[in-house]
Design goal:
The protein is of the alpha+beta class. It contains 5 helices and 7 strands. It has a 6-stranded mixed barrel with strand order 1-2-7-4-6-5.
């Protein structure tokens, strides 16, 4: 079993009953996760359809599977694969889908969720597992107690640490936006200032002529404010055709 945000450990080619079978080399792949019945409740994963694993899903019971939403859409266009069979591990195992859970991010918070198939650990035993523990109190002391109680546990880690590691890239992108955002505003302000200064400098001579001909301050102020429109190529006239007497 691989907990969230810790990558993919097992993957498997799969085949859905009732769908055309592509050549073995072209079959799609999905993540394969072996879990115990309490895994989804411990994580707080939302059950979308069907049921979760139970004690009755043991080694001698019919093989069952739970799939995530991404896998459900690949198995059925309507996202309702309950009761369908999926072949995993090179067609050696045929599991009946009994439930659908919300996508759980195994790789990172930003990467799209892989299609994922969950199977009972008792039906698909493996040589090593990961433990996921939920505590009612502060998790820090429980982490040390767990390490002391189960010496075989390697490098116990808080889920908040894994989430923080997954957010590092987002923090970096946010820092870049925080730096380049104000910089872009500064460049835009300098550009507007430069264009305005150029137009003012170019219009000094025309302004002097207007004032010499008796233009009032209110009149040349209005003309100055309207100058950007007159200079626009879409305007029906240009600044040179507007005269103030």
């Amino acid at each position: 079993m691989q907990p969230p945000l810790h990558g993919l450990h097992w993957t498997t080619p799969y085949l859905v009953s009732g769908q055309p079978a592509p050549p073995a080399a072209e079959r799609p792949w999905a993540a394969l996760n072996m879990v115990i019945p309490g895994y989804f409740r411990t994580l707080g994963a939302h059950l979308m359809a069907g049921r979760l694993f139970a004690a009755g899903d043991h080694a001698h019971a019919p093989l069952v599977a739970i799939v995530n939403e991404t896998m459900a859409r690949k198995m059925d266009a309507g996202g309702a694969p309950i009761g369908k069979q999926v072949y995993v591990q090179d067609d050696d195992q045929v599991c009946t889908v009994v439930g659908v859970v919300a996508d759980i991010h195994q790789i990172s918070l930003t990467a799209p969720a892989w299609p994922e198939i969950f199977v009972p650990l008792k039906q698909f035993p493996v040589s090593f597992v990961s433990l996921v523990v939920r505590t009612a109190d502060a998790p820090g002391p429980a982490l040390h107690e767990l390490a002391a109680a189960v010496p075989a546990v390697e490098a116990p880690e808080l889920m908040t640490t894994a989430v923080g590691r997954g957010l590092e890239r987002l923090d970096f992108l946010a820092a870049l936006m925080g730096f380049f955002g104000p910089l872009a505003l500064l460049v835009a302000a300098l550009g507007i200032y430069a264009i305005t200064a150029q137009r003012v400098a170019a219009g000094k001579r025309d302004l002097g002529v207007r004032m010499a001909l008796g233009a009032t301050p209110q009149g040349w102020r209005e003309v100055s404010l309207a100058a950007p429109y007159f200079l626009s190529p879409r305007a029906p006239w240009s600044a040179s055709s507007v005269r103030t007497c």
